[in-house]
UniProtKB/TrEMBL annotation:
Protein name: Unannotated protein
Stated family: Belongs to the ferredoxin--NADP reductase type 1 family.
Alphabetical keyword list: FAD, Flavoprotein, NADP, Oxidoreductase
Co-factor(s): FAD
InterPro entries from the UniProt entry: FAD/NAD-bd_sf, FAD/NAD-binding_dom, Ferredox_Rdtase, Ferredox_Rdtase_adrenod
Pfam hit, one: Pyr_redox_2
UniProt GO MF annotations: oxidoreductase activity
Residue ranges constituting the FAD/NAD(P)-binding domain according to the UniProt record: 4-165
Length: 438
């Protein structure tokens, strides 16, 4: 029975759905040995270090990942970094196929003056900070000011704004990293603006995320109802047969409900600004003010009015999308791996954000993986009979195998239990490796 060896690089949702698609494609004639290679000692990618801690339901997909990992022929190689501990060319040589599921971890830049001032940071730093990613645990973020501005009208911006604006007691029973819970409890931020450069009708938020905002007990949320009314009229005038697409109608309705929701007079608030294009961040050594150009929508197009306004603020977080970190051995174009429907040259493939850019929800990776795995199987030749990759990784290197990850996982969950939390995360590589040793 021919068995093909597949390397999946990156243990996030795209990696696990790729492994699952391979497992589901097995027949009596075709079987796969899957090695999943991950830079961190912990798998699950954005499910661990991206999904907001107050969205625990989304994280239950990790049960699917663990089921995939329990299948015969699956091995985890955690704490193994491509380009450092192992080279892509060696993987391509030894495996029948390599699937790059390496995501996009770099925050896009605004490219405006003042962006590099202290306390102007990217969601690509802030999100992994509150989620306990070892690379960001020591992030220097000053929460002693009162006002924060989050740039972007997508779900990541929404997560960042909510995490800053909610009362941190709401995080006490979540898996937010301890350092972040402590910092957020001590935070003086009380007003959070979230700014989109286009109109409410163009916002990339999804309506479930909007609809949960009125449920925030300790935070008043402000939407300008006239702006939403105008957006609704504009959207209808642009719509085919005068009928809005379902998601847009639902978004605008969710915004209208928020605008009409009574304010409880909470000290904490979140306010949505639209048609606001960031032009400059100002401050003496640190963020003090942000200048926005005022846009308007003319015949469905967003144009600059030439007018500006400013918000005095102490913190700016940019959540305007991500790009992939370049990796030697594959070409990158516009922040993604250069690919044709997932084929990235030779026996290298790609799935997830590295393939299609930072779009879609976790489940989107399932169909993406299944499409690419179909092509990968079409391309398979006779299986290679090569030696194991463990030979390529230096003998002293600490590889976190599935059993060791399970010990880390169990220790974190056990630490959370008495505190009513799903887990207490270890936030440094050394801590994680020591948990894995039991
Ligand atoms: P996104 O949905 O693409 O939103 C990016 C936002 O940044 C857009 O509003 C975009 O505005 C804005 N933007 C881009 N360049 C800008 C600039 N130069 N100046 C000002 N604004 C700019 O990206 P995301 O929020 O990073 O989310 C990535 C993916 O993850 C999305 O598919 C999202 O739905 C998903 N996600 C889902 C959840 C969830 O399900 N709860 C949570 C987090 C993320 P324009 O539209 O004008 O370009």
């Amino acid at each position: 029975m021919p068995q093909y060896k597949i390397a999946v690089v990156g243990a996030g949702p795209a990696g696990y759905f790729t492994a699952q698609a391979l497992q589901n494609s097995q027949t009596e004639e075709l079987t796969f040995a899957i090695d999943m290679i991950e830079r961190l000692p912990t798998p699950w990618g954005l499910v661990r270090s991206g999904v907001a801690p107050d969205h625990p339901k989304i994280k239950t997909v990790s049960k699917v990942f663990e089921k995939v990992a329990a299948e015969p022929g699956f091995r985890l190689f955690g704490n193994v970094e491509l380009g450092k501990d192992i080279e892509l060319k060696d993987l391509a040589e030894r495996y029948d196929a390599v699937v790059m599921c390496t995501g996009s971890s770099i925050g896009k830049k605004l490219g405006i003056p003042g962006e590099d001032l202290a306390n102007s940071l990217s969601a690509a730093e802030f999100v992994p900070w509150y989620n306990g990613h070892p690379d960001y645990s020591d992030l220097d973020i000053d929460l002693s000011g009162k006002v924060a501005v989050v740039i972007g009208a997508g779900n990541v911006a929404m997560d960042c704004a909510r995490m800053l604006a909610l009362n941190p007691i709401e995080l006490d029973t979540t898996d937010t990293a301890d350092h972040a819970v402590n910092a957020l409890h001590a935070s003086s931020i009380r007003k959070v603006y979230i700014a989109g450069r286009r109109g409410p009708e163009h916002a990339a938020f999804t309506s479930p995320e909007l609809r949960e905002l009125p449920k925030l007990e300790h935070t008043d949320v402000y939407f300008d109802s006239d702006l939403i009314e105008d957006a609704h009229k504009r959207a209808i005038s642009q719509a085919e047969f005068g009928e809005l697409e379902k998601h847009l109608a639902s978004n605008l309705e969710a915004m209208r409900l928020i605008a009409e929701h009574p304010h409880a007079g909470n000290e904490r608030s979140m306010e949505f600004k639209f048609l606001s294009a960031p032009k400059e961040i100002r401050g003496e050594g640190k963020v003090e003010e942000i200048i926005f150009g005022i846009n308007q929508v003319v015949d469905g197009k967003v144009v600059d009015t030439g007018e500006t306004y400013s918000i005095k603020c102490d913190l700016v977080i940019t959540a305007i999308g991500y790009e992939s970190l370049p990796i030697q051995g594959v070409n990158f174009v516009k922040g993604k791996i250069d690919n044709n429907e997932g084929r990235a040259g030779g026996n290298i493939y790609t799935v997830g954000w590295a393939k299609r850019g930072p779009s879609g929800v976790i489940g989107t990776n399932k169909s993406d993986a299944s499409d690419v795995v179909k092509l990968l199987i079409e391309d398979l030749k006779s299986p290679k009979s090569t030696r194991d990759i463990t030979e390529l990784i230096s003998s002293g290197h600490h590889i976190v195998a599935q059993s060791e990850w399970q010990r880390i996982n169990a220790a974190e969950v056990a630490a959370g239990e008495p505190l009513g939390k799903p887990r207490v995360k270890a936030t440094s590589v050394a801590q994680l490796l020591s948990l894995g040793q039991g």
